[in-house]
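Hey, can you fold this one?
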Amino acid sequence: MRVGFIGLGSQGAPMAQRIVAAGYRTTLWARRPATLEPFAETTAEVAHTPRALAQASDLVCLCVGNDADIRDVLTGQDGVLGGLAPGAIVAVHSTIHPDTCRELADKAAALGVTLIDAAVSGGAPAVAQGRLLVMVGGPTEAVDLCRPVFETYADPVVHLGDIGAGQVTKLLNNLLFTANLATSASTLALGRDLGVDEAKLGEVIAHGSANSFALGRILAGTMARIGEHAGHTLRKDIQLLADLATGSDADTGVALTAADATLNLIGHAR
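Sure. Predicted structure:
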């Protein structure tokens, strides 16, 4: 399988590097030439447009910023969909609205191309260990064809259902993580007010049944960094999830309330 990769940021670049290292014929395109420099001594080829990349690819992986970026790369002038042959696959690794995935999947299908959503979680450290989590929505046949490529950087790769299911799952994951930040921080603060040393309380909880990844981030003193580096992303994802729940008349329960408390704490209220 020939693989094209677009989106060579802090997470996408190491994903592409592992695809190249696994021996796949890989073509890259980037808006910023500097992001291509780490691949100069590899076998990866560089295309001048997304369309040219698509013409050299059976699978195109997209790891760009948001819905507008995905639309532009796929359907804009010299876009990916203009260059793919029937039978090709597009995998959207970005976190975007599930309805955007469904809309673009319909446009791709009209050209004989399959689009799947393949949201990711874990960041560059997980990619380096081959342990990135990939949450996939789309036809089983397409997912099975992509799985060997995904497994160059991911474990597990979980197929969750039809197109959009991966995006919904990623948003739910981020909702719970964001909610857990607030519940962890407030529990430590309550302990302090009740006369229990916060550091000691954190040590106990970290070894108990209430431990969580979010608690670990707080104990590591990275709450401020989360706000600085990921606050805008968490706000976007929580807003997306809230919109989905409203549109489906679904009850978000206490999770959204707790997540909003976190967004307030980190200065990114929605």
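The chain has a mean pLDDT of 96. Let me know if you want another pass with a different chain boundary.
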